[in-house]
Amino acid sequence: MDATAHDEDDASDLDALARSLAEAGVDLLVGTALDYAGVTRSKAVPVRRLRSFVTSGMGASPSWVVFCADNGIAFTSGIGVSGDLRLRLDPSRLRAIGDAMAWAPTDYCEQDGTRSALCARGRLAELEDRAASAGLTALMGAELEFALVGADGAPLAGHSWAAYGMRSVVARRDFLTDLTRTLEDAGVGAEQIHAEYGTDQFEVSLAPLPPVEMADTAILTRILIGLVAARHDLAVSFSPLPFVGGSGNGMHLHLSLARDGDNVFAGGDGPHGITRAGGSAIGGVLAGLSDLLAVYAGSVVSSLRLTPGSWSGAAVCWGLENREAALRFLAATPGNPHGANLELKIVDPSANLYLAAAAFLGSALDGIERALPLPDEVIGNPAESVESARLRLDAEPSGALDRLEASPLAARLFGASIVEGAVAVRRHELAAFAGADAETITAALRLAWS
């Protein structure tokens, strides 16, 4: 079959899909893309325009990638008022999400249809391919923490909170049952939904998936959480720290790597069964941690969460089931049905998830390629270690941005344009809130990532 006939078949399939969605009650088709501030931006069309959204895309200025959490724009040497990108929808991820809407992720593309060098989703896809070329299969999972707040962002009142408690579930049962049903209807593989430590804080844990699919699914999950909250006259805060003195929200990422079906974090002769390749992956993630911190947790709010004693992983080390280590190791045991994996705890919801996942996967691959040694494990609380000063994560925002800007690893993983844009966005935040106290910052950005 020639290319023209193939294109005609694809167009016919897309038109049929649009008709099917319309018959199912879908009116609005929403495509989303993340900017470097971690905010979900969107374009929407009537569902009948599905084919156009996929084939030619919807226009977006290159400045979309450098929109900021306060809605400012952080222009760079390569991103200004001229030029245009196209947001091209990925129909393979298309889902009906209720409320007469359907959703799919988009890629930032050039006018000729090729992915833009500015596209974070494309960078993650390239690293997923790089892993496959090295004979490695990557799976990633996500844990999404969030706080329910009033529609205006104010704290909720009316009941006492029990951390991880049944009383808390009962108090918000209408929201939680609606959320469970909505996630199931959208085909999201939620594995766990529970009350968290902080007041009106909850967590949704997602099943492991290939990296791009994981990030797409996590973004969809955040959208669905917001939709369900709105149905109940609530809002949801994905801020790293919604309220000063309260609990922070993480967006923990899990990573497993397998070669020829064998998990590199199990079955070896290293600690807890870690193989030599698995040890090198751990070494790579820790070696790149400081350089990539501004990708994992780079917002002006992030450093307020990254403190010892908060289980945010504010120590540059790894340890078995160690919740104070930046990299928590989960061994292959009967209690771990997904097998041995790494959990990166420092990632928060202000991150561009595609870039954070790319940084995590890319630094692990870098460690394997360089055959880095497995660092010594830290057992117990790193803050109580004799090496606590060396292990403590330097979360000062300006320094983290300087390290990202100068990092050869970041340049290899993301390219110069993404690094420049990501640094510009976060420096805009620092300038916008210079001199402001924590109360002012958290209040201004409480709903920025919602």
From TrEMBL:
<comment type="similarity">
    <text>Belongs to the glutamine synthetase family.</text>
</comment>
<dbReference type="InterPro" id="IPR036651">
    <property type="entry name" value="Gln_synt_N_sf"/>
</dbReference>
<feature type="domain" description="GS catalytic">
    <location>
        <begin position="120"/>
        <end position="450"/>
    </location>
</feature>
<dbReference type="InterPro" id="IPR014746">
    <property type="entry name" value="Gln_synth/guanido_kin_cat_dom"/>
</dbReference>
<dbReference type="InterPro" id="IPR008146">
    <property type="entry name" value="Gln_synth_cat_dom"/>
</dbReference>
<dbReference type="Pfam" id="PF00120">
    <property type="entry name" value="Gln-synt_C"/>
</dbReference>
<protein>
    <submittedName>
        <fullName>Glutamine synthetase</fullName>
    </submittedName>
</protein>
<dbReference type="GO" id="GO:0004356">
    <property type="term" value="F:glutamine synthetase activity"/>
</dbReference>
<keyword id="KW-0436">Ligase</keyword>
<dbReference type="GO" id="GO:0006542">
    <property type="term" value="P:glutamine biosynthetic process"/>
</dbReference>
